[in-house]
Amino acid sequence: PERSARVSKIRPPLHQYIRKLLFSDLDKSSIEHVLRQLRKLPWSECESYLLKCFMKVHKGKYGQIHLIASLTAGLSRYHDEFGVAVVDEVLEEIRVGLELNDYGMQQQRIAHMRFLGELYNYEHIDSSVIFDTLHLIIVFGHGTAEQDVLDPPQDCFRIRMVITLLETCGHYFDRGSSKRKLDRFLIHFQRYILSKDALPLDIEFDLQDLFADLRPKMIRYSSIEEVNSALFELEDHERSFSSDKANSEKQSDMEKHLSSTTS
Amino acid sequence: MKGPLDRTKVVIRHLPLTISLSMLIEQVDTHFAGRYNWVSFRLGKNSQKHQTYSRAYIDFKRPEDVIEFAEFFDGHVFVNEKGTQFKTIVEYAPSQRVPKQWPKKDGR
Question: Deepest of A19, A186, A233, B51, by most Cβ within 10 A of its Cβ?
């Protein structure tokens, strides 16, 4: 046949070197070395390529994603702009994933969830980014005409995304306001889960592990009605808590009373 | 942590691939010159699998400017030379972090 052999991509030496560092040299023992080599690069020339490579976390080993997060944190001490760009980029990838809901991107999307969680573990982002992302995942596209394409009842992929993120960094949300935020999210998450058709067993088992791990005492609700009343109670509690606080502030006081008597 | 009322960083999504940073700045500066501290631009790409849009991040000086900017720019339609329309989306950036003004020089 006349077909020519597949031509492999020819990359400039600098790009080849970056790829070698990140995709073949990097492991637990070499990370210090890799970080030092990356710092020596001509940054003005290769920052955007580096960013591109950092987003390829799904191409490497799943267990090594934390190394890329660690490198991000290490590099941002000297290249803050890069550290900021990595976070913006991962969040954009997650958002695009939700917008397209493309089956072929699933592996990549899971890797990005893991990466986001690891960025939190390396103290590169704060918990508000994690919670905003969790909430985005369970509401995105809901109530729109596209809901059946973006998140049909038999599609459990978003549950997988949440499990992955919380497996990675959920154990840090065990005190103070982040504990309360996780408690609250998990109830919303339960409502989301109940809105799905019957769960495949593997997902159900992973959920059981996740709850056992993070909140062993939390009730798993079995109906939407139960979870709704739990949410109502929670919101009621939060409202009275916040109106207590507002009592000293004159302005919002009236408003709070009005809303608590009407609901 | 920043509350909803002091967020200053926005993301502008769904920009056409043909737009450049300078073209965007020109548009922004018609009304917002001098009212932002930092801009970052990401060129989209046209691959066979997925076409991605271009995107920009802007950090405004004051939270009020964000509201005004969104009113001005959200839903703004760009038309490329082929006549394709791009309707931009302006949102608060999910991560509000911006680079510090004076990063440490890496002595390496």
Answer: A186
